[in-house]
């Protein structure tokens, strides 16, 4: 596959502190990659070096095989950062037209309004926009130059749940058209829903790299959910093999277990009166917590 971003042995030191420590990875064309990690983990510094906003202390970053500061690269990427300065007194569509004028092959204004879901706000002055609407405007401006590579820093902060899900659909559509997308987010649900690959940072290093499903598969604890029209004693369920927690509410039971196969086998061997049995894997939050905890133990 075509490599769009290559990061090789990159480190960044601030006053003798390693913000990023010997990080290497590449991103292929059409991927949606989420950079996750606790505050201070190194993901924002890494994104800044990829964008050419910060110089690596060591190592090399290339985009499309060139320096991030190369003119061809600058014309082929768009960035939706936390803060974007826009003249407050102009309207939404005037701001979009202004940013379109910076590029030789911009996306049509109407398309940008549609992709950012701002068609109804086109005549509204930027200073009157809500926080979520400003984020959507920033998205339109990042897309204005029709970039092949798109960086999104906490893109849905301030958006309501409906706007957030609409935004996700737009991101998926852009990726399906061949655009490569890098995002940071504190919403793990967002990373799970959008990314086909996650890079998890901690203490300036990448401690996990994989799909959301691969991340969640590392969690040994899983849940078994079932229904029963009969009363099943909690004590009995807690005595099942590998069960660590039991929750019940109006005939619905949730068992947390370290070994779903062993627990299910015991349920059926004892002919417990259960129906609608389902098994759920660990969540991305649990995987996140486990990876970070393991990293702290290694450092200790």
UniProtKB/TrEMBL annotation:
The keyword Transcription regulation does not apply. One of its GO terms (molecular function) is ATP binding. This is ABC transporter ATP-binding protein. Gene3D superfamilies: P-loop containing nucleotide triphosphate hydrolases. Residues 5-228 form the ABC transporter domain. Keywords: ATP-binding, Nucleotide-binding, Transport. InterPro entries: AAA+_ATPase, ABC_transporter-like_ATP-bd, ABC_transporter-like_CS, ABC_transporter_ATP-binding, P-loop_NTPase. PANTHER family: ABC TRANSPORTER ATP-BINDING PROTEIN.
């Amino acid at each position: 596959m075509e490599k769009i971003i290559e990061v090789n042995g990159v480190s960044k030191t601030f006053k003798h502190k390693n913000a990023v420590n010997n990080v290497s990875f590449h991103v292929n064309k059409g991927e949606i990659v989420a950079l996750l990690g606790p505050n201070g983990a190194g993901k924002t510094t890494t994104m800044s070096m990829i964008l050419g906003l910060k110089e690596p202390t060591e190592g090399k970053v290339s985009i499309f095989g060139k320096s991030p500061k190369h003119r061809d690269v600058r014309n082929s990427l768009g960035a939706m950062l936390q803060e974007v300065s826009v003249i407050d007194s102009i309207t939404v569509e005037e701001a979009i037209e202004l940013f379109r004028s910076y590029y030789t092959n911009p996306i049509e204004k109407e398309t940008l309004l549609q992709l950012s879901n701002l068609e109804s706000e086109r005549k509204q002055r930027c200073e009157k926009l809500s926080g979520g609407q400003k984020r959507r405007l920033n998205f339109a401006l990042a897309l204005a130059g029709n970039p092949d590579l798109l960086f999104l820093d906490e893109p849905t902060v301030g958006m309501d749940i409906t706007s957030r899900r609409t935004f996700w659909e737009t991101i998926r559509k852009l990726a399906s058209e061949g655009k490569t997308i890098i995002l940071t987010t504190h919403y793990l649900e967002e990373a799970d829903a959008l990314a086909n690959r996650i890079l998890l940072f901690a203490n300036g290093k990448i401690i996990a790299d994989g799909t959301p499903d691969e991340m969640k598969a590392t969690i040994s604890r899983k849940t078994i959910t079932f229904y029963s029209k009969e009363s099943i004693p909690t004590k009995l369920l807690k005595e099942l093999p590998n069960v660590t927690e039991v929750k019940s509410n109006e005939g619905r039971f949730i068992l947390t277990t370290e070994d779903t196969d062993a627990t299910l086998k015991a349920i059926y061997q004892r002919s417990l009166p259960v129906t609608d049995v389902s098994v759920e894997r660990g969540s991305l939050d649990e995987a996140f917590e486990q990876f970070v905890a393991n990293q702290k133990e290694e450092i200790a």
